[in-house]
Design brief:
Elements lengths: L1 E10 L3 H12 L4 E4 L20 E2 L4 H6 L9 H6 L2 H10 L4 E4 L3 E4 L4 H14 L3 E3 L4 E7 L2 E7 L2 E10 L14 H8 L4 E7 L3 E3 L11 E11 L2 E12 L3 E3 L1 H14 L5 E5 L6 H14 L18 H8 L12 H12 L1 E8 L7 E6 L4 E2 L4 E2 L5 E3 L13 H18 L1
Parallel strand pairs: 1-2, 1-9, 2-6, 9-20
Antiparallel strand pairs: 3-5, 4-5, 7-8, 8-9, 10-17, 11-14, 11-16, 12-13, 12-15, 13-14, 15-16, 18-19
Helix pairs in contact: 1-5, 1-11, 8-10, 9-10
Length: 414
């Protein structure tokens, strides 16, 4: 079998792998980047619905880190070496103009994920990285505490150092099939429990299908178990044919996945969280005065999206044919309660095929946060989604890829 030798071999041509390979080569190393897909950055092109939310403009490291829960402290050192500002400068210096949208989400000005990928491919070319696409790793060999070689179908790759940037298990159709977790485990690493996160939620109620495709803004969702509120989130949600999606649902999905292991979970949806019971009742009274001679079913257009009106009418128990000026206070109270508390029963979280990120991965205790070097294998570095770090939507997870990838590339080449 044919053999090729390099200073550094990077496995995985996603965001972490591309920036790691480019940085290592920029520092003078002879680098090979191995990707099993026919193209680089397949999953990157899907992020942010094809727009690529490439970072989160939170320049306070402590605040950024807080979004990653218990393991977040691991990021202090990497972010001090290559943080949000460094990432934005990296892309802007290479001709990509950026913009920051609501929620401090950073996008390319063009709204094209392909432009982000273009910068990375140019970076690889400029620094003469040997890119092998359509090349699947089928085996990894270890000698003592070092990787000795990696085996492809038609050749063996021997390198002084290796970087695993193989991603997670999310969007398996893009090549993220969890191979890296298997290899890391074979090499002696601990893999923390893998679960799909930032994923839509399935709901038991059948009325969901009546409102599928409806997007809700400025709503509040409470998560309940055993009559106790376990979590809540405010923002945007989206009804799907099987349940709920959208930013606040994705961010709650990790917590919901864990709660479901211990019992049933319910949602309470507040369509008007900015108004308390009395203020909302007064608002409805004003609408009813405006439409006093109309039927109830024609009086809610100012208050609700058209698609939601039949559902709320049903929940309120008021006859849709009733004249507005005959609706009594008790009926109005029921309507307010219907708007402030739509109850839903969660049947499950969607799997890895619909999750944006994989929670779990190589234990942070087995990685040096100053270099991204493995504490188990002397010549191995790890970066990106393979490590046990996951944050909310809004560019946090891609920033971890840029930070850990850049650091792994830099450390392996020095």
């Amino acid at each position: 079998m044919m053999k090729e030798s390099f200073d550094i071999a990077v496995i995985g041509g996603g965001p972490a792998g591309m920036i790691a390979a480019g940085r290592a080569a920029e520092l003078g190393a002879r680098v090979v980047l191995i990707e099993k897909n026919d193209k680089l950055g397949v999953k990157l092109l899907l992020t942010g619905k094809g727009r690529c939310n490439l970072s989160q403009a939170e320049f306070n490291v402590r605040k950024f880190v807080e979004n990653f829960g218990q393991g977040g402290d691991f990021l202090f050192s990497p972010l001090s070496l290559f943080g949000v500002k460094d990432t934005m400068e990296f892309f802007e210096k290479r001709g990509l103009r950026l913009k920051t949208e609501r929620g401090q989400r950073v996008f390319p000005l063009s709204d094209q994920a392909s432009d982000v990928l273009g910068v990375l491919i140019s970076y690889l070319r400029k620094n003469k990285v040997n890119v092998m696409t359509g090349s699947e790793v089928i085996g990894i060999r270890k000698n003592n505490n070092q990787i000795s070689k990696i085996i492809l179908k038609d050749k063996e790759i021997i390198a002084a150092k290796y970087i695993f940037c193989t991603g997670g298990k999310s969007y398996a159709q893009t090549g993220s099939t969890g191979d890296g977790f298997r290899w890391a485990k074979q090499l002696g690493h601990t893999i923390i429990d893998l679960q799909p996160v930032l994923t839509p939620i399935e709901i038991k109620e059948r009325w969901i299908k009546e409102v599928q495709g409806l997007s809700l803004k400025n709503v509040n969702i409470g998560v309940w178990q055993n009559n106790k509120k376990k979590n809540e989130a405010f923002g945007e949600a989206l009804f799907t044919h099987f349940g709920l999606s959208g930013p606040i649902i994705l961010d709650l999905s990790k917590k919901i996945g864990r709660l479901l292991k211990t019992g049933e979970v319910k949602f309470s949806l507040d369509l008007k969280p900015a108004l308390d019971f009395i203020k909302l009742d007064n608002r409805i009274k004003r609408d009813f005065a405006k439409y006093s001679n109309k039927l109830f079913k024609n009086s809610l257009n100012d208050l609700l999206p058209q698609k939601l009106i039949p559902l709320i009418i049903r929940f309120s128990g008021i006859s849709p044919e009733k004249k507005v000026n005959t609706i009594i206070k008790e009926e109005r109270s029921k309507l307010v309660r219907s708007l402030k508390n739509i109850e839903m029963n969660v049947s499950g979280v969607c799997g890895f095929n619909q999750s944006i990120v994989t929670s779990g991965g190589v234990s942070l205790k087995e990685i040096d946060s100053k270099t991204m070097k493995s504490k188990i294998i002397d010549n191995l570095f790890l970066a990106g989604e393979i490590i046990d770090l996951d944050g909310p939507t809004g560019g946090y997870n891609l920033q971890v890829c840029w930070t850990t990838g850049y650091l792994a590339g830099q450390s392996s080449a020095s």
